[in-house]
Write a structure and sequence with these properties.
With 455 residues, the protein is of the alpha+beta class. Helix content is 24%, strand content 25%. It contains 12 helices and 24 strands. The protein starts with 12 loop residues before the first strand and ends in a 5-residue tail after the last strand.
Length: 455
């Protein structure tokens, strides 16, 4: 267990920095910003930021192996979860460039047991609009991750049920199975195992020497970070060990922050794909696709290309802003979505924009105070889990949030009635009625009301 060592007293707030703070070197400001995350056990990993080809920040924090006190370095390899989809998409587009595939190729031949698969195109898979049932939603998904898999065995898990919707008509959620299928297609079209195919098509071509696909043969690879997860409010435990082959295509890449930055330069610099394939990957007419979110960002005043990922023991975030060729890469071997907030805020620091500091309450609320926060709250159909009831629970001096499936998120106190969900890094606020009882729960941009008849 990790012992609490942070001692900062302010809640989350927009920083109004005096002029002398803005005059501090940018690297010093970024490092100062990161320290509360590191000291509280919510970030351990590597960060690299570049602007117009110049590295403006590069530093590693925490341990790749906490038990043996092996520190992370900028050469440490991290599993990058859903950021892996960028590399799968690139491998497919390389095959398109070689004339072995078309974006309009129908994929029914690869999954003959799936109803409606003859309607799905490679483009639908790449843009996550296939309508395939998703393997991550299967009740035995955790068991799947405990055994070696191949793209073929992963696709076999979803054969049978009908499509969720007409292919190409909408984006419903991240389609993990679509990228499992893309991995299978890459194998079929190259005659190589997926790991070898991506090495040939993408990693070698982009000169990514520390990157690879984890097909379960990389457990003892050099400079590979071990994965950890939050335990309660302040602790850290080893994450459960999985077979990364169970995430082939959608989350099986390991790489370094340096290789990721090199990849971004190759992709956005037009040195990897043909102009037509590059335009397809970076096209902003669809906000999601090819392993990217591509959205107009009000904070930065331009289109932002970003991707985040979480998988047992790891979290990642990548951001690219074209105007100044700014890239921010944040890899962590702690399972926490803080990486997304960190990456966005580092970009804001580089732009001289306002950003938020993370400062857990010190002293923390008493057990008696936390008990007054408990209750069950009903959210609407637009919530992450539609019509979900979330239960706020107190045990001793720790508050947590129970989700409908039984998973529990620790809530870090940052001010009176204000918390941060340690798992998903969303701000949480308790609203009280005139008598002081909890009447509502604000979770990020969503609002839940106290559920009638629930304690």
């Amino acid at each position: 267990m990790f012992t609490r060592i942070i001692s900062v007293a302010l809640g989350l707030s927009i920083c109004a920095f005096p002029a002398r703070a803005q005059e501090r070197p940018v690297a010093e400001r970024i490092d100062s910003y990161l320290q509360p995350y590191v000291q509280s056990g919510n970030f351990s990993g590597a960060v690299i930021a570049k602007v117009n080809g110049k590295t403006v920040f590069e530093k590693a924090y925490g341990f790749a192996d906490r038990e043996r006190k092996v520190p992370n370095t900028v050469k440490t390899r991290f599993h990058v979860a859903s950021v892996s989809m960028q590399f799968t998409a690139a491998a497919v587009l390389r095959l398109v460039d070689e004339g072995k595939l078309s974006l309009d190729t129908r994929v029914g031949e690869f999954i003959p047991g799936s109803k409606g698969a003859e309607k799905i195109t490679v483009r639908d898979l790449l843009t996550e609009r296939s309508g395939l049932p998703d393997i991550n939603n299967l009740p035995d998904y955790n068991d799947i991750l405990q055994q070696h898999q191949t793209p073929a065995t992963l696709i076999a898990k979803i054969e049978g049920p009908p499509l969720l919707f007409e292919p190409g008509t909408k984006y419903l959620h991240e389609e993990h199975s679509a990228y499992n299928l893309l991995a299978l297609i890459v194998e079929k079209k190259t005659g190589l195992p997926f790991a070898a195919a991506v090495e040939k098509l993408v990693f070698r071509r982009a000169a990514l020497q520390a990157s690879g696909i984890d097909d379960d043969s990389n457990a003892t690879a050099a400079k590979m970070a071990l994965g950890y997860q939050p335990a309660g409010i302040y602790g850290i435990d080893r994450a459960r060990v999985i077979h990364w082959s169970g995430k082939t295509g959608n989350a099986s890449v390991f790489t370094t922050a340096g290789d990721e930055t090199k990849w971004l330069e190759a992709l956005f610099g037009g040195r990897l794909l043909s102009s037509s394939s590059r335009e397809a990957m970076l096209d902003t007419s669809l906000e999601v696709g090819y392993g990217w979110f591509k959205r107009a960002n009000k904070r930065f005043g331009e289109t932002a290309y970003s991707m985040s990922g979480r998988a047992p023991g790891f979290a990642s975030f990548v951001l690219y802003l074209p105007r100044e060729k700014m890239s921010v890469t944040v890899f962590s071997n702690i399972y926490s979505s803080a990486t997304s907030t960190i990456g966005q805020d580092i970009a804001a620091i580089l732009r001289g924009l306002p950003y938020e500091t993370f400062s857990p309450s010190d002293p923390p609320p008493s057990a008696a105070e936390l008990k007054t926060c408990t209750g069950t709250f009903q959210f609407g159909a637009d919530f992450y889990q539609p019509n979900a009831q979330l239960e706020v629970m107190a045990e001793g001096q720790e508050l947590s949030l129970r989700w409908p499936g039984g998973s529990v998120s620790p809530l870090i106190p940052v001010a009176r009635d204000q918390f941060v969900d340690r798992s998903y890094w969303e701000q949480v606020k308790i609203e009280r009625d005139a008598s002081g009882k909890p009447a509502g729960l604000v979770y990020g941009n969503f609002h839940g009301s106290a559920a009638p008849g629930k304690p």
